[in-house]
Amino acid sequence: MVILVIGLLILILIPGFRRAAMTTRSKTVVNDLRVFSIAFQQYRAENTDFPPDAATGAMPTGMAEFLRETNWLATTPIGGRYNWDFNCNQGGTVYLAAIGLRSVGSNSVSSVLEQLLQIDRLIDDGSLVSGNFFLGAGNEPVFIIEP
User: Fold this and answer.
1) Per residue in 77-125, pLDDT tens?
2) Interatomic CA distance for residues 12 and 32, integer angstroms
3) What is the pLDDT of residues 83-96, one digit of tens each?
4) Chain centroid offset of residue 122 CA
5) With 0-12 CB in 10 A as exposed, 13-18 as middle and 19+ as buried, what is 105?
6) How far apart are CA 116 and CA 100, in angstroms?
7) Pairing of strands 93-102, 141-146
């Protein structure tokens, strides 16, 4: 009887823990994107333009000072790595400045729709096909800093 009650409690509690973990990851991504956006805007204010394009997971040229206390070089909370995109083409539209979340090898960005929509609702319009946060090339998330 005791084992049955414990088993039922575990079945009830696990989904709540998973939702809480997902929300924590979503909020961390949103915070990272906001911090990164401010850092790139500060760089632009001091240098009259954004830094050149950079490889996925690499520190963009000139940004070390601006991103030194951030998670830029870390794996994102939803997998993959951050990528600086300058003058990037997303679905035929060229954006001046964007941050992508890119899969690298076996380190894939989450494709869990609920997770991505939660991030979108926290930072944008709640739609993964419009606004400043959407699914770009390869169905990987993109956050537009400057259209």
Assistant:
1) 999 999 999 999 998 999 999 999 999 999 999 999 999 999 999 999 9
2) 32
3) 999 999 998 999 99
4) 12
5) exposed
6) 13
7) antiparallel
Contact by Cβ (8 Å): 142, 90: yes
Measured from the Cβ of residue 123, the count of other Cβ atoms closer than 10 Å reads 20
10 — pLDDT class (breaks 50, 70, 90): low
| Domain ranges, ordered by start, for the chain | 2-146
Residues sharing a CB contact under 8 Å with residue 85, sequence separation 6 or more, in sequence order = 53, 95, 97, 98, 99, 100, 142
- Nearest C-alpha neighbor of 145 from the set 24, 22, 33: 33
CATH architecture assignment, domain 2-146:
2-Layer Sandwich (3.30)
Instruction: Note if the pTM is more than 0.85.
Output: yes
Reported residue count of the chain is: 147
Q: With CA atoms as reference, report the closest residue to 56 among 89, 80, 77, 35.
A: 80
On the question of pLDDT at 17 being above 90, the answer is no
d(CA 117, CA 112): 9
